[in-house]
Automatic annotation (TrEMBL):
Its EC number is 6.1.1.18. It comes from Piscinibacterium candidicorallinum. It is found in: Cytoplasm. A motif ('KMSKS' region) lies at residues 304-308. Monomer. Residues 376-485 form the Glutamyl/glutaminyl-tRNA synthetase class Ib anti-codon binding domain. The gene is glnS. It comes from the Bacteria. GO terms for molecular function: ligase activity. PROSITE patterns: AA_TRNA_LIGASE_I. Residues 51-372 form the Glutamyl/glutaminyl-tRNA synthetase class Ib catalytic domain. This is Glutamine--tRNA ligase. Residues 504-577 form the tRNA synthetases class I (E and Q) anti-codon binding domain.
């Protein structure tokens, strides 16, 4: 599939569900007051102009990675395609691990990706929300559950609770605190909130069914005591809601229709529904309620995406920070040269499914290549330089030129010189050529004692040259290659066609080339499934995943600005590093290699 034709959105089961809901008018009666809220707020609102509402709910405890991109593109794309609204919600109900630094980075990455949370319906309405702003509602909902006999304060120790939960084969055992009166529960819960009990001494639990075959329904915890300063609410609370309690409420307050999450939450869905039904019965929420749907998380080979493992790579300095171009974080991918378009294409192409599977890393790389092929300016660069001396060249350098892009004349023309001393790639010369090698090699004397001339190649956009010899140092390293050029063979002149050569190589002239630091990257792990079967993923880190070289670049690259992307002809796509690149000290990162279509 080419990226020139607009790719049809990968048809997936979520689209089918949404289309069915739209057809049946499942969510047609909802009201929206222009802000999140329970029944009291929303019933005063207008009919919701958004046909559906989806959300991306990151916990601000780390940087976004490629797996999150999948979820963002999915949720944002569905809202966009079905006349809906997309919310960005910080799921910041856990005070311990969350930081403003992560909130800021997530906002910036989302903007860059183009996943906009501005309402398409109401001017100025921003759907950027914080779950911690719903703490009051969550608390009131908990008191309601207690009053309705659906929740109780349990004072068992953590070990007792674990033991009494049972397992897949054994039903659980009721807590001795389960039959407390409503008044006792309410009092205890208010004491918890007032800070009269120690951290961990008791929890609020839902009263559902300790014998349920679904362990998530065996009286799950709703609130815990935790004295910790929260990044948004400070020290206002010493009790915090559990994720499984908070999340459905967050969705409901925001009028989310399709709450899309990854498969590991499938067993939580019955509790999600139970909780929202109870709160609707109590008049705290209006129907229709949000519904949870699960899809398979993105698993990509040769990377890890667990925040804990990524943090370990950073903390233990296996990489140069969260935005190291080898990291699968959004800040890393961006610095590597990935574009929002390539990432969105990747998400569309890999679709959303119900079954877990692995996507090969090359699928991601292919989307970047496809995106940059059509728009990155071309340039010549020599990343592993070897000197080529044109022994019959005398005088002033000759001006040469090439289009910046073969299909885009509007991008203009590049200019560079040809002279006596050039740089070529070390691998474009072989002293003793292997079979089928069509690049430079020196003359030799064959078995019959006859001298066979050295090979001829075209220096792209320049002249045809014939290899005449080379020099080596004492250690046996080739230090320079010698050739003669054919003055009437210049590309674009009538004489050029008189020369038939099998090899074309890239080069730059020592007279105008620009020196640059170039960072060449390879896969970060040597194994496709770095943490498979409990293996320590650090044991399969590729020691050669980053190589820094001093390269010679065509002079047109002297004007590159940070984030500018180029195709270094025959090598791959490169980006001027957004942190370190300056006009005085150019730094380029390798984004992705070209699919190698070059004959030997
Ligand atoms: P991690 O496992 O890396 O800690 P997380 O799921 O805990 O990630 P959250 O911030 O809670 O991180 O995730 C926000 C959203 O991104 C969730 O809805 C989650 O399902 C989704 N998400 C996370 N990882 C992936 C993935 N690999 N593929 C698809 N969606 C993902
Ligand atoms: Mg999570």
């Amino acid at each position: 599939m080419s990226n020139k034709e607009a790719p049809a959105p990968a048809s997936n089961f979520l689209r089918n569900i949404i289309e069915r809901d739209l057809e049946q008018g499942t969510y047609a009666q909802r009201r929206w007051a222009g802000q999140p809220g329970g029944a009291v707020v929303q019933t005063k609102g207008e009919p919701d102009p958004a046909k559906i509402r989806t959300r991306f709910p990151p916990e601000p405890n780390g940087y976004l990675h490629i797996g999150h991109v999948k979820s963002i593109c999915l949720n944002h794309g569905l809202a966009r395609d079905y006349n809906g609204a997309f919310h960005l919600r910080f799921d910041d109900t856990n005070p311990e691990k969350e930081e403003q630094e992560y909130v800021d980075s997530i906002v910036e990455s989302m903007r860059w990706l183009g996943a906009d949370w501005t309402s398409p319906f109401a001017q100025g309405e921003q759907h950027l929300y914080y779950a911690s702003n719903y703490f009051d509602f969550m608390y009131a909902a908990a008191e309601y559950l207690i009053e309705a006999g659906h929740a109780y304060v349990d004072e068992q120790s953590a070990e007792e609770m674990r033991a009494n939960r049972g397992d897949f084969t054994t039903p659980g055992t009721n807590s001795p605190w389960r039959s407390r009166t409503v008044a006792e529960n309410l009092q205890r819960f208010r004491e918890m909130r007032a800070g009269q009990h120690a951290d961990g001494s008791m929890v609020l639990r839902a009263k559902i069914d300790m014998a349920s075959p679904n362990i998530n329904l065996r009286d799950p915890a709703l609130y815990r005591i935790k004295r910790a300063t929260h990044h948004n609410t400070g020290d206002a609370w010493c009790i915090y809601p559990m994720y499984t309690y908070a999340h459905p409420i967050e969705d409901a307050l925001e009028n989310i229709t399709h709450s899309i999450c990854t498969l590991e939450f499938e067993d939580q869905r019955p509790f999600y529904d139970w909780l929202l039904e109870r709160l609707a019965e109590g008049g705290l929420l209006t129907k229709p309620l949000p519904h949870q749907y699960e899809f398979a998380r993105l698993n990509l080979t040769y990377i890890v995406t667990s925040k804990r493992k990524l943090k370990q790579l950073v903390d233990e300095k296996h990489v140069d920070g969260w935005d190291d171009p080898r990291m699968p974080t959004l800040v890393g991918l961006r610095r590597r040269g990935y574009t929002p378009e390539a990432l969105r294409l990747f998400c569309d192409r890999t679709g959303a499914s119900k079954a877990n599977s692995w996507i090969d890393y090359s699928v991601l790389e292919a989307t970047l290549r496809e995106d940059l092929e059509g728009r990155a300016a071309r340039a010549m660069a020599v990343v592993k330089p070897l000197k080529l001396v044109i022994t019959n060249f005398e005088g002033e350098p000759v001006a040469c030129s090439a289009p910046a892009h073969p299909q885009k004349p509007e991008l203009g023309t590049r200019h560079f010189q040809f002279s006596r001393e050039l740089w070529i790639e070390a691998e474009d010369f072989m002293e003793a050529p292997e079979k089928g090698y069509h690049r430079l090699y020196p003359p030799r004397v064959d078995e019959a004692g006859v001298t066979v001339p050295g090979n001829k190649v075209r220096l792209k956009y320049g002249f045809v040259v014939e290899c005449t010899g080379f020099k080596k140092d004492e250690a046996g390293h080739i230090t320079e290659v010698h050739a003669t050029y054919f003055p009437d063979s210049k590309s674009g002149t009538p004489g050029a066609d008189n020369y038939k050569v099998k090899g074309v190589i890239t080069w730059v002239s020592a007279t105008d080339a620009v020196a640059a630091e170039v960072r060449l990257y390879d896969r970060f792990f040597t194994e496709p499934h770095p943490d498979a079967g409990g293996r320590d993923f650090l044991s399969v880190v590729n020691p050669k995943s980053k190589q820094v070289v001093t390269a010679w670049l065509e002079p047109s690259l002297a004007n590159a600005k940070p984030d500018d992307k180029f195709q270094f002809e025959r090598i791959g796509y490169f980006v001027a590093d957004r942190k370190d690149h300056t006009a005085e000290k150019p730094v380029f990162n390798m984004a992705v290699g070209l699919k190698d279509s070059w004959g030997k």
